[in-house]
Amino acid sequence: MQYLNAFLLGGLLCAVGQILIDKTMLTPARILVSYVVAGVLLTALGLYKPLVNWGGAGAIVPLTGFGYALAQGVEKAVKTDGWQGIFTGGLTATAGGVAAAIFFAFLAALLSKPGEKT
Length: 118
Fold this sequence. Notes:
Layout: H1 2-23, H2 28-44, H3 48-55, H4 57-60, H5 63-81, H6 85-111
Helix pairs in contact: 2-5, 5-6
């Protein structure tokens, strides 16, 4: 059942993104940023945690999950470090994922054959 829930929630988030691309004048970059901000806002309102509990990876993997991780990191850092945690918590919580993305992008660039589009 967990796989089905993840598929449904992740698919819903992707479908909403596709509808926004097709039906609005928003650029993909603005939609991606909106997803991250929505993840932060929904986490701050306490609405994203139930989605994570129900949808698992379907809620954590999309960009809304990145916003969720940022907000969780800030919340944890503020509890331990005080107000300084506002500036450090999000970076600490997402550093591993960002580092992995950079590493694998570099690896893909090394292994791929670059060429001009014709």
